């Protein structure tokens, strides 16, 4: 299905009943609530259970402490409540706004305004997690607009350009992360590698590199470790769906299943190799070495290209840079700019799921389907039926 433009929406959907576009499972706005909230609760609980299970496994020994389990439990409840309220109150607000506007829909009041308003539920997440969610949605909305521009032939997102974006993003990201190395509290950031702190001359070590032991061993160990992580993720994705026939699944493993492993291993290996080279050549360590090291490491992107990942490297770097701007009072700390940005992103993306699914990021499609427990698919199907003759 192609994108439904504003003129087409206003011409076709303006006078359509809300049950056809919002709650097709029940004609009544009130009677449709039980299924809506029940589905949102089940879907959100399942969706976040997988996310938190992965985080528990990644924390490893940290989960040996009882307080960590209580904290993770609290965060899980808050995230599930966020998913429930965003998913369920969006349709409620859409119906309410339609009533207030004389039983008429407009392009902006159908989904954009309701899901922008209930984006305020982001405050249910603790500040440490809130930033990660906001950063994710910023990545997704940039990906969406890039796809829209590419579809309109204003932009051609080639593999080369994606690689260049990732190289630039990695360069500034690693540099800013090393600048933050001496802080007691670092900016929460979802990235699969945290570079070592800058080795200071005053620490009494004879080694100028930011690690202990021989450089060759350090780089080789880095490559092997992250290659193994990438291989584990890729093989799990390939084998687990075929767990009933393990021999057949293992025999179907091909070289393409090691692309992510090569990306992880090369990305970290190249970065650390360049850092060590510059430290040995100059005789001291510096945060600026991360600029060429991160740029060169970005070439590993060619093993496993992803538009979302190239965008994520740039936005992560911008997030760290914005922290500096806040500290220097360049950005006003009394205005919740990140939360406002999140509300805009959520309204844009959730609207795109229905009116522009071709350009909508896959993550958003899966997120809405999972958290709504399938009710979003019913809405999309009904919306398609209403608009198909006008496309």
Automatic annotation (TrEMBL):
A Pfam family of the record is: TMEM135_C_rich
GO cellular component terms given for this protein = endomembrane system
Keywords carried by this UniProt record: Membrane, Transmembrane, Transmembrane helix
The UniProt entry lists membrane topology as: Multi-pass membrane protein
**N-terminal signal peptide:** none
Q: Where are the transmembrane segments?
A: 35-54, 75-93, 105-124, 131-148, 160-177, 258-275, 295-321
Protein family (similarity comment): Belongs to the TMEM135 family.
Q: Which PANTHER family match?
A: TRANSMEMBRANE PROTEIN 135 (PTHR12459:SF15), TRANSMEMBRANE PROTEIN 135-RELATED (PTHR12459)
Q: What is this protein called?
A: Transmembrane protein 135 N-terminal domain-containing protein
